[in-house]
Amino acid sequence: MAALMLWYHFLPDWHIFLLFAFVILAFGAAFGAGLWLCALNVEYRDFRYIVPFIVQFGMYVSPVGFSSSIVPEKWRLLFSLNPMVGVIDGFRWCLLRGESPLAISSLLSSLLVTGFLLVTGVCYFRRTEKTFADVI
Known about the structure:
The protein is mainly alpha-helical. It is built from seven helices and no strands. It is elongated and about 60 Å long. The protein starts with a helix and ends with a helix.
């Protein structure tokens, strides 16, 4: 991406320094969801067949191929409960010189949902890890 930015003479401005914060937020969301999914996968054997559907559904409800601004206002709160909405919008905001709108409400809800996923994922994993050896 850096090579393409140089090729097209598109250099980011100071927003690029906040990119690391969004990488940390993405890592937290992935880690929290991963803790939940791996603990549920060990506890319930058939859960591994559901995971690809969850990932595919998450791809469609995340603003990967579309902008968050096209989501109607009445669905915006429900849409922003996806923790990746704030992450993807933050990446766009950092890399496109702040030209992409970054909604503070979606960023705050992304932070809250990621924190919730992390805390509950760690608690659930720690509670169920004592039975992992028995199940495997």
